[in-house]
Amino acid sequence: MSKFIVRGGKRLTGSVKVSGAKNSVLPIIAASLLGEEGVSIITDAPPLDDVMTINKVLESLGAEVTYQNEVITVDATNLTSCEAPYEWVTKMRASFLVMGPLLTRMGYTKISLPGGCAIGTRPIDQHLKGFEAMGAEISLGHGYIEARSNGKLRGAKIYLDVASVGATENIMMAAVLAEGTTILENAAKEPEIVDLANYLNGMGAKVRGAGTGVIRIEGVEKLHGVQHAVIPDRIEAGTYMAAAAITGGDVYVEGAISDHLGPVISKMEEMGVKIVPDENGVRVIADGPLKAVDIKTLPYPGFPTDMQSQMMALLLKSQGTSVVTETVFENRFMHVDEFNLMNAEIKVEGRSSIITGGAKLTGAKVTATDLRAGAALILAGLIADGTTEVGGVHHIDRGYVHLAEKLNGLGADIYRVSVEEPKREAKSTESAVTETETARFKVQPTLA
Ligand SMILES: CC(=O)N[C@H]1[C@@H](OP(=O)(O)OP(=O)(O)OC[C@H]2O[C@@H](n3ccc(=O)[nH]c3=O)[C@H](O)[C@@H]2O)O[C@H](CO)[C@@H](O)[C@@H]1O
Ligand SMILES: C=C(OP(=O)(O)O)C(=O)O
């Protein structure tokens, strides 16, 4: 186990480079299972724990996977299994995205039910509804879902009750080898959906309309490997933009695509942050007081739920009262109690959090309850008085490449320490942090 130690009070300046998007690379790796000929080469693949996990899932299915220097190769010509077991799916919900590709290519798949997580119950009914509409038979039991098709899946008209990102991706991947045309209505419009569609089309698929609410997929006989570069991570970019703004800094976020960050940029500008986008990135300058603003999370192109907690950290520094309403997930305010441990003033009322900005934050021992909560606590630590210890680092490692190194490159003071599991019989309440790894993050994470 490890913790991040953040010493607050540093203004961030300079330039930071965004890595490839976690939420693009995961479905793209899953889609590689569709390649019956040739090898897929995925570049700008970020070295994240989630990427290692999905690579293992593919290997367990018989695909040959290599990963070096942010390049993944997948040879899925000979698959040997159609089962994604519990150990992988519980580790990472996105493992469930192998269902569509396996079902359509192999005619059968058995996958552990993903279950809920810290941010909500996260059902998969819309994925299953889509597969059933295409003729799959679904059965559930003993914590697993089995899906089988009698011959090929058939194209269908499918209306999603919620514009689910995962369901759109899974159904799109199933439809590419189905017989006939699938029309997916109320589809999610996220940039990651477009990236996946581009990848599938490169493999020989016929997907049209990705990025709009209606996607048309004409089934083809076979797909092949292709080379594809993953888009930059808009949430990682937004997190560094928030880091610049919260510290009153001046930072160029290289690789940030401003078109993907519309609502984040608008809200920061409303707060009084200067944002200067160009074709290679976004410059963020925060040289004045920050205004309170209200935020409501929504599916793309609305304000992203994955930036909610980081923006809440920024609002802690603003003058006045802000209301943040979470409409995408029903339980995504677990960071509030942690912020309050740092002397923040936030109250949760149903789906909204009311933030009284301006309280002087103080360093404390806090825990990341999910990936973005972890990033948000680090942001708060950047301006807190004294030292903040952020536990639950495994959540952060799922989605941020070299987070401490990148922030330290801008002038922050963050390092990772290993932490011994507290012994049950120990009476002392002293910190369990052992300063054995206090070297400033020179070590690169080991890649599988
Ligand atoms: C790996 C990945 O890309 N993860 C992202 C993806 O997650 P994920 O694809 O899991 O999120 P969804 O878009 O599916 O979920 C959005 C909402 O729809 C509900 N829902 C979803 C599916 C379903 O069958 N039935 C149903 O009711 C969920 O409970 C949630 O309330 O989109 C989320 C919403 O932008 C992001 O926070 C995640 O970072
Ligand atoms: C919720 C997130 O991811 P996942 O869907 O992989 O849990 C996230 O990236 O913030």
From TrEMBL:
Lineage of origin: Bacteria, Bacillati, Bacillota, Bacilli, Bacillales
Recorded catalytic activity of this chain's protein: phosphoenolpyruvate + UDP-N-acetyl-alpha-D-glucosamine = UDP-N-acetyl-3-O-(1-carboxyvinyl)-alpha-D-glucosamine + phosphate
Binding site for phosphoenolpyruvate: K22, N23
Protein name (Swiss-Prot/TrEMBL): UDP-N-acetylglucosamine 1-carboxyvinyltransferase
Active site: C117 (proton donor)
Family to which the UniProt record says this protein belongs: Belongs to the EPSP synthase family. MurA subfamily.
Gene from which this protein is expressed: murA
Primary residence: cytoplasm
UniProt function note: Cell wall formation. Adds enolpyruvyl to UDP-N-acetylglucosamine.
UniProt xrefs under NCBIfam families: murA, PRK09369.1, PRK12830.1
Record InterPro entries: Enolpyruvate_Tfrase_dom, Enolpyruvate_Tfrase_sf, MurA_subfamily, RNA3'P_cycl/enolpyr_Trfase_a/b, UDP_GlcNAc_COvinyl_MurA
Molecular functions per Gene Ontology: UDP-N-acetylglucosamine 1-carboxyvinyltransferase activity
